Amino acid sequence: MAGQGTIDLYTAGTPNGHKISCTLEELGVPCNVQKIDIAKNVQKEEWFLKINRMIDTPGVPTLRCSANGRIPAIIDNTSSPPRRVFEGQAIQLYLCEQYDKDHRISFPYGSDDYWEMVCWMTWMQSGIGPMQGQANHFYRYAPEKIQYAINRYQVETKRLYQVLNDRLATQKAAGQGLWIVGGKFTVADISCFSWVNWAEWAGVETKPFPELQSWLETIQQRPAMERGVNVPDAFEMKKAMKSKEGEEQFAKHHSNWVMQGMREDEAKHK
């Protein structure tokens, strides 16, 4: 729910950004969206790295929006002083703790379902996210095509998709529906969906994984999720992929800023 709200959301139209905008939409929590133009490396600018929300209040520590220089990040203005949270999984768990008291997309803290949910969110953040992200890089952006690297990360992404497909099949067979945990749609599904929804950009097909494909299509039809993937901008990747020209233009645009960011980091960390 972009607009006047208690949450300041700093984000971009990426899988990690979509993870949080979709969570906020599903919870119905209004937020003030600030687009971070990663094509211009805005996430590395000092104002983003170090935001002092209480500059006139002695003794209040400076808020760093994201110490890692990455999106997404939020500032919750209902806290006194305002509370900064960065990293996708931390933000999702925080939002559920603060704004999902009736557990619409989460579970009571300490329950078996809660910890199972955390396991699958952590699995995504340490598995699908980084592996598919590297597949994106070597398949779409790297200045030289290293086939070993492309194969390595695409195959690992497919292996992880098979793990998720098998989990969904097991849940379905047990009468839990086509959801990752607890027989309902939760932040574990949002977390995994945010990356699987970008599968084709990594050169990976979802159709060989029937339960995953059905799960993906079901989530795509949720109104809140559709709104969430269009924050802060319209989600253009799937439209671009409909033509070779569109695909190439989309890749060229993103490759330029990815490589520019790499060159700047290399200069700083020789």
Automatic annotation (TrEMBL):
Span of domain GST N-terminal: 4-103
Transmembrane segments: none
PROSITE patterns: GST_CTER, GST_NTER
InterPro entries assigned: Glutathione-S-Trfase_C-like, Glutathione-S-Trfase_C_sf, Glutathione_S-Trfase, Glutathione_S-Trfase_N, GST_C, Thioredoxin-like_sf
Domain GST C-terminal: 113-241
Stretch list, region Disordered: 246-270
Family annotation (CDD domains): GST_N_Ure2p_like
Source taxon at top rank: Eukaryota
Record PANTHER family: GLUTATHIONE S-TRANSFERASE II, GLUTATHIONE S-TRANSFERASE-RELATED
Family, per entry: Belongs to the GST superfamily.
The name this protein goes by in its record: GST C-terminal domain-containing protein
